[in-house]
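Assess this:
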Amino acid sequence: MKLEIFTDGACSGNPGPAGIGVVIKKDGAVIREVSKPIGNATNNIAEYTALIYALQEALVLKADDVLVKADSELMCKQVAGKYAVKHANIIPLFEQVKRLSTGFKRFRLEHVRREGNKEADRLSRQGIKAGQDGRPGAAGIGEESPSSKGQCIP
């Protein structure tokens, strides 16, 4: 199965209350949207957390070809090996992305401008607000996310 995924992480303050947004599409149709608060984090941690969540969801959905689009140029270049990962808090997240990405026959991470990532951006900001309101956030379109049912890939 081939999926196109848009991810974004955002925070209010850096660090500050953070949220993630993920939009998963199959054949151009949205099959899942995720908006979740992740507590206090930096913007880069939120970006990586969104990517990790998206890859876990893609594995649960049994995707074999994944194209992820994100507006974090830093993260995209780090995952591509063009930039070194130096920050101690990012290294384990980077390593988890690398491990998860081996679960697909084909994995690509592409940098897009913010205007090309509006839905994931909106969802990440909703995640921040949900966390500030004490709500757990929203997952899925019409049903609960598989990973929220304990099916996450470690």
